[in-house]
Amino acid sequence: MKTKFTKTLIFVSALAATDIAGAQDSDQPVMVEIRRLSMDTALTIAKTAIDACREQGVQVSVTVVDRGGHPQVVLRDVLAMDLSLEVSYRKAYTAMTFASTTSSLEDRFTGPFSVGKLEKVLLSAGGVPIQASGETVGGVGVSGAPSGETDENCALAGVAAVEMDLEMASF
């Protein structure tokens, strides 16, 4: 019995070693380079969004998240409600996750157990993905304006402020 177990263990180990060796021969690189927004770029997006909303007489909160959904820059104008901080984060996270404006997702998930019921996901206008050369590198969310349309226009202004720089970045 012990001999049979030992033979089986040796066979399984040899099989696993073969799979590992085969994986090393694949075309996959050992390391993967991941592009991220610089802090200055993220700050420019957020500040431009704040300024765009101020021009319309609205004070808002803005969150810029990186490609992993982690807050990189968070700004809240003086009179923006505290709740707008969390809402702007969720909009940014959702836009980054789905690589789509949150306004285009508003009617997409309507079932009782749909993706829209996840904790960080918010399907409300005001979130915009940040893309460079077709790759999503983050998201920006704006909250606090009287309408989601205004929130989204301010977020779009923020992304537009760095759009040329993002496209010119070498990938």
What does this protein structure show overall?
By secondary structure, the chain is of the alpha+beta class. The protein has one domain (39-168): Beta-Lactamase, CATH 3.30.450.150. It is built from five helices and four strands, in the order ααββαββαα. The chain has a four-stranded antiparallel β-sheet with strand order 2-1-4-3. The N and C termini lie far apart (58 Å).
Query: What structural class do you assign from the helix and strand content?
Result: alpha+beta
Q: Cα distance, first to last residue?
A: 58 Å
Per CATH, which architecture?
Answer: 2-Layer Sandwich
**Fraction of residues in helix:** 40-55%
Under CATH, the topology can be stated as Beta-Lactamase
The total strand number stands at 4
Q: Count of DSSP helices?
A: 5
Query: How is the main sheet built?
Result: 4 strands, antiparallel
Beta-strand percent range:
15-25%
Strand line-up across the major sheet: 2-1-4-3
CATH class: Alpha Beta
List keywords for this structure.
single chain, 171 residues, alpha+beta, Beta-Lactamase, four-stranded antiparallel beta sheet, 5 helices, PduO/GlcC-like
Summarize the structure.
The chain has 171 residues and is of the alpha+beta class.
Topology:
Elements lengths: L1 H23 L14 H17 L5 E6 L4 E6 L6 H16 L28 E6 L2 E9 L4 H13 L2 H6 L3
Antiparallel strand pairs: 1-2, 1-4, 3-4
Helix pairs in contact: 2-4
